[in-house]
Amino acid sequence: MSNLVVFFDADVLVAGSASTTGAAHLLLTLSELGIIQGITSDHVQEEARRNLAKKIPDALPEFEEIIRRAVTIDSSLVDTTPFHGSAHPKDIHVLAAAIVANARWLVSFNLKDFYQPSQITVLNPGQAIRTIRETLGHVNEQLR
Q1: % the chain with pLDDT above 70
Q2: How many contiguous H segments (helices) and E segments (strands) does the chain have?
Q3: In this structure, what are the phi and psi dihedrals at residue 119, rounded to the nearest 5 degrees?
Q4: Domain with 79 in it
Q5: What residues in the chain have per-residue pLDDT under 50?
Q6: In this structure, which of 3, 23, 104, 129 has its CB flanked by the most CB atoms within 10 Å?
């Protein structure tokens, strides 16, 4: 299993479940393959499930498969108090869960909701894929 722990926000789980193309789905596939370690919280998982049920119910079976195969669910209760001011109030729980889970990255489409916390790198799915590609490119060069 990879030691690159990546915390997925609900919007990434929704996008990756609704479409088999795009960076969100690719990240979830990389997690399933063990190239990265995908994690999310109970609360985020339920938010994604509710959003899919309301907006894209046909994607629910894919979502359930992704959750089963590619994402670890952290059920820890997290005190959000230390993180106030580091994210939009509606997303404090996401940031807190990602940091407590020791994720290196928090991947979300809503970068503006996270105010550059020093404890974690916040990326959108495209940025995360580019960073992985660059890292793998450097590893490939070192192996030559």
Answers
A1: 93
A2: 6, 5
A3: -80, -10
A4: 5-143
A5: none
A6: 23
Query: Can you name the residues that pair with 27 across neighbouring β-strands?
Result: none
Residue 138: per-residue pLDDT? 55
**Confidence at residue 3, expressed as pLDDT on a 0 to 100 scale:** 84
Alpha-carbon gap, residue 8 to 13, rounded angstroms: 7
Where does 21-144 show beta strands of DSSP type E? 37-41, 71-74, 105-107, 121-123
Angstrom CA distances, 39 to 55, 102, 104, stand at 23, 10, 11
Q: Which two tokens stand for residue 103?
A: 């994720």
CATH number at residue 64: 3.40.50.1010
How many domains in the chain? 1
pLDDT single digits (tens) 33-47: 999 999 999 999 999
